[in-house]
Amino acid sequence: MLSIRGLSKGYSGPRPRAVLSGIDLDLAAGEYIAVRGESGIGKSTLLNLIAGLDRPDAGSIALDGVELTRADDDALTVIRRERMGFVFQAFHLLPYLTAAQNVALPLLLNGTLDGATSPRVSEMLAAVGLADRAASRPSELSGGELQRVAIARALVHQPRLVLADEPTGNLDPDSAAQVLELLRRSVKGEGAAGILVSHSPAAAATADRIYTLTASGLRSG
């Protein structure tokens, strides 16, 4: 489903540095992997490259046979909207929308007319334990609740690829366990693929395979 070959990315400036070099990765439908590594090693950069939010210096990324690194910005926007679910560390919820409306955004963008009233939105809010917070706006939610809304939004449209960047960083242990189970169940149940980036050994242990990102590349274990 996902194939990455020779992926490299660096940043110029007063102190140029290579962030990723020669990354290879294959991910099949139904597989859920975790990527660990030191802070600043490039884990978030890897997810951003896969999602088409940043462009690599070299290498290729293909999703369901579509070469993402050759797609233009408009095509990448459609692919992200229809096939990907991304859980950002910073949530990126729209402050003027309710929790239900934020979760409904992927459905609206993909042409589902009933939006926030969709049973799927209610189902996802219930799955993350926020059924009673559907009408609340982000300013009325705690950090943990914001994270759970972001996770519900990432999964609501049943994406082919789920990218989760430290999805349990703001959650208590019980909520974290609930969310990790939801992510895994969603990937497996939908025949999707998932990549979890996390510093947490407990979170990484829920994946099928664990990779460690180092300055020399991506290695298993």
Description of the molecule:
The chain is α/β, with parallel strands linked by helices. 33% of the residues lie in helices and 26% in strands. Strand 1 and strand 2 form a beta hairpin. Helix 3 (99-109) packs across helix 4, helix 3 (99-109) packs parallel to helix 5 and helix 5 packs parallel to helix 6 (173-190). The two termini are 21 Å apart. The model has no long low-confidence stretch (mean pLDDT 90).
Sequence-ordered SSE layout with sheet pairings:
Blueprint: E1 2-11, E2 17-27, E3 32-36, H1 43-50, E4 58-63, E5 66-67, H2 73-83, E6 84-87, H3 99-109, H4 119-127, H5 143-155, E7 161-165, H6 173-190, E8 193-197, H7 201-204, E9 209-214, E10 217-220
Parallel strand pairs: 3-8, 3-9, 6-7, 7-8
Antiparallel strand pairs: 1-2, 1-4, 4-5, 9-10
Helix pairs in contact: 3-4, 3-5, 4-5, 5-6
Total number of helical segments?
7
Q: Give the N-terminus to C-terminus distance in angstroms.
A: 21 Å
Helix percent band? 25-40%
Q: What name is given to the CATH topology?
A: Rossmann fold
* Structural class by sheet pairing and helices: alpha/beta
Beta-strand content bin:
25-35%
Strand order, main sheet: write it out: 6-7-8-3-9-10
Order of helices and strands: EEEHEEHEHHHEHEHEE
CATH homologous superfamily grouping: P-loop containing nucleotide triphosphate hydrolases
Unreliable segments of 5+ consecutive residues: none
Q: What is the level 1 CATH name?
A: Alpha Beta
The tally of strands reads 10
How many separate domains? Answer: 1
Overall average pLDDT? 90
The radius of gyration is 17 Å
